[in-house]
Design brief:
- By secondary structure, the protein is α/β, with parallel strands linked by helices.
- It has one domain: NADP-dependent oxidoreductase domain (TIM Barrel, Alpha-Beta Barrel), CATH 3.20.20.
- Helices cover about 40% and strands about 15% of the residues.
- It is built from ten helices and ten strands.
- The strands form two sheets. An eight-stranded parallel β-sheet has the order 3-4-5-6-7-8-9-10. Strands 1-2 form a two-stranded antiparallel sheet.
- A hairpin with a 5-residue loop joins strand 1 and strand 2.
- It is globular.
- It starts with a strand and ends in a 24-residue tail after the last helix.
- About 45% of the residues are buried.
């Protein structure tokens, strides 16, 4: 498994398993298969309502804690300093862990104007050693700029929607400049349209790989962290088998040319409510 070094010096697997919208029963099957296939990074959130099930699988697996990298997130309705600390403690308890490797502000929700004090609560949890690294999710450039101006600890990652049809090139450039890793949710694109793209299919045929493997390899060579979600054992195993080949410079350019600016999820600036069905 390829590891990347975050701006706080900690190492994180570049590929992990996402469990958005995965039921408790499915988490047991998916996470168990992932561990068997070599995954060591798992991405959950309070909003996914499966932290407890994931924690059970991890504890029962026998994999040493220091080999695992667990991410969770504070949900919108729990933003604010005191509420965030309480939400973090719930997640820590649900996961059954002594610490969380990476904790994120799930959405900036600029209308709430609470993301700065929410992030300061993450800083406090980090000072106490309850979380090793802290970051954000779905933040745009203006949100990151304000955060870095008003807070002490630079985010290590910004987890955002990113796939061949929505490549976030400007945001990626900003994050790279400030040593913040982009982490892609829905890296294969919700709905799977990018998997059927003719260019992707052609490159896949060239390498005798699946379209999903080509897209994941593109992300990795872009320097992006990826957390593909799957509950299908064969696909879970397939998704991690992307470290035995490389895309050529020309193939990378071909995929770069597919960008349509096609966002499938919510726009972070449109987050006016604490609950919006279907959000990542």
């Amino acid at each position: 498994m390829e590891m990347i070094t975050l701006n706080d010096g900690r190492k994180m697997p570049q590929l992990g398993l996402g469990v958005f919208k995965v039921s408790d029963e499915e988490v047991h099957t998916a996470a168990s298969q992932a561990l068997e296939s070599g995954y060591r990074a798992f991405d959950t959130a309070a909003y996914y309502c499966n932290e407890q099930s994931l924690g059970e699988v991890l504890r029962e697996s026998g994999v040493p804690r220091d080999e695992l990298f667990i991410t969770s997130k504070v949900w919108n309705g729990d933003q604010g300093y005191d509420k965030t600390i309480k939400a973090f403690e719930r997640s820590l308890s649900n996961l059954g862990l002594d610490y969380i490797d990476l904790y994120l502000v799930h959405w900036p929700c600029p209308d709430f104007d609470l993301y700065v004090e929410t992030y300061k609560a993450l800083e406090e949890m980090q000072r106490q050693g309850k979380v090793k690294s802290i970051g954000v999710s779905n933040f745009q450039i203006e949100h990151l700029e304000r955060l870095m101006k008003e807070c002490d600890v630079k985010p290590v990652v910004n987890q955002v929607e990113c796939h061949p049809y929505f490549q976030q090139k400007e945001l990626k450039a900003f994050c790279e400049k400030h040593e913040i890793f982009v982490e892609a949710w829905a890296p294969l694109m919700q709905g799977g349209e990018a998997l059927r793209d003719e260019t992707i299919q052609k490159i896949a045929k060239t390498h005798s790989k699946s379209a999903a493997q080509i897209i994941l390899r593109w992300h990795l060579q872009e320097g992006t962290i990826v957390i593909p979600k799957s509950v299908t054992p064969d696909r879970i195993e397939e998704n991690i088998n992307v470290f035995d080949f490389e895309l050529s410079e020309d193939e990378m350019k071909q995929i770069a040319a597919l960008d349509r600016g096609e966002r499938k999820g919510a726009n972070p600036n449109d987050m006016h409510r604490t609950e919006i069905p279907g959000l990542k």
